[in-house]
Write a structure and sequence with these properties.
Layout (H helix, E strand, L loop, with lengths): L11 E8 L2 E4 L4 E3 L3 E8 L9 E9 L2 E6 L7 H12 L5 E8 L5 E17 L11 E7 L2 E5 L2
Antiparallel strand pairs: 1-2, 1-7, 3-6, 4-5, 6-9, 7-8, 8-9, 8-10
């Protein structure tokens, strides 16, 4: 039965397909960058100064940004993959899936990101006066995104 309530954004999976020894990771606290925008080119019609035509050209995608607490067990395969690309220019583009789940762990909506690769890794500042978790932010660029039908 379909729920009459809107989906909540705190129950999701992030799957990485193509990192050796690493299949999926569900331990992210935030995923942003799920954007797609149709770019357009203005066309001015001769003799008509009231408006311009907007012709669609291509779809533009934002970078996928993933945030989580730094794992206490050391270097994960995901961070090793990102480090190889960012520090040593060793790129291994992969498929990434983001899947929104309902309260029964059933997928509601999903996106596939093709040929994703890391472009930025960031850690929150270290501060001895505060008792906060260190947050790791991984930013991925990709060739294109596709919403998946479920």
């Amino acid at each position: 039965m379909l729920s009459p309530y809107p989906a909540v954004g705190f129950h999701f999976l992030v799957n990485f397909m193509g990192i050796p020894g690493f299949l999926f990771d569900t331990k992210f606290m935030e995923v942003t960058g799920l954007t797609a925008e149709l770019e357009h080119e203005p066309l001015i019609e001769a003799g008509n100064n009231r408006f311009t035509h907007k012709l669609p050209t291509r779809t533009k995608f934002g970078n996928l940004v993933l945030k989580r607490g730094v794992p206490a067990l050391g270097l994960s395969p995901l961070v090793a993959w990102a480090t190889a690309a960012i520090y040593f220019m060793e790129f291994l583009p992969i498929e990434v899936q983001v899947i929104l789940l309902n309260e029964n762990h059933i997928p509601l909506k999903a996106w596939n990101f093709t040929k994703a690769y890391p472009v930025k890794i960031d850690y929150t500042g270290l501060n001895a006066r505060e008792n906060q978790i260190v947050i790791e932010t991984l930013e991925l660029a990709y060739q294109f995104a596709t919403p998946l039908s479920l």
